[in-house]
Amino acid sequence: MTYIICGLVAIVSPFFALAEPIAVLSGLSQKVDWMMMAFTLAFGQCVGFSIMYFFGDRIVARWRWFARKLRRVNLDEFQGRRNTCTLLAACFGLPPLTALALGGPLYEPGFKRFIGICFCGRILRFLVFAGAASFFSKYVNHSVMPGWLVPYL
């Protein structure tokens, strides 16, 4: 049940940045498998990015400032580097992957390629976050954690 809830939260996390803290908490936790949580979070975020890719034009229409910024981007300049740019966005967040997903058809590396790169990059990202937390969890004093958080670790 924990994985399902976290996967659903990960769908909206591109807007609220919730997946990274969940990955760190899963790495600190003894109750969940942090590797499985990394895959769950990556899958959930890719569902969210898919929704943004296909319905981005409707979302952008409501955000006029974002639509102006998208119109100013010269996509021909990045013609040969779109896959690299998508991978960097998926792994490191620069440029923001949310912006690339919302600009989906404008960005157009092809949906299958775009979501495949996003999924691989996000798995790598969350494995690093959760794995680092798991590695350092033996050095963390749980008494310094907030009281409401300790039962989940």
Question: Could you please describe the fold and organization of this structure?
Answer:
The chain has helices spanning 2-16, 19-28, 34-62, 64-72, 82-92, 97-102, 104-107, 111-136. The protein is an all-alpha fold. It has one domain. The model has no long low-confidence stretch (mean pLDDT 85).
Major sheet summary line: none
Distance between the termini: 16 Å
Overall form? elongated
Radius of gyration: 17 Å
Total DSSP E strands = 0
Mean pLDDT: 85
- Which secondary-structure class do the elements indicate? mainly alpha
How many separate helices?
Answer: 8
Q: Provide the β-strand percentage band.
A: under 5%
Number of domains as seen in the coordinates = 1
SSE pattern, N- to C-terminal: HHHHHHHH
| Helix fraction bin | over 70%
Low-pLDDT parts are none
In short:
Helices cover 72% and strands 0% of the residues. The protein is an all-alpha fold and 153 residues long.
Topology of this protein?
Layout: H1 2-16, H2 19-28, H3 34-62, H4 64-72, H5 82-92, H6 97-102, H7 104-107, H8 111-136
Feature tags:
mainly alpha, elongated, 153 residues
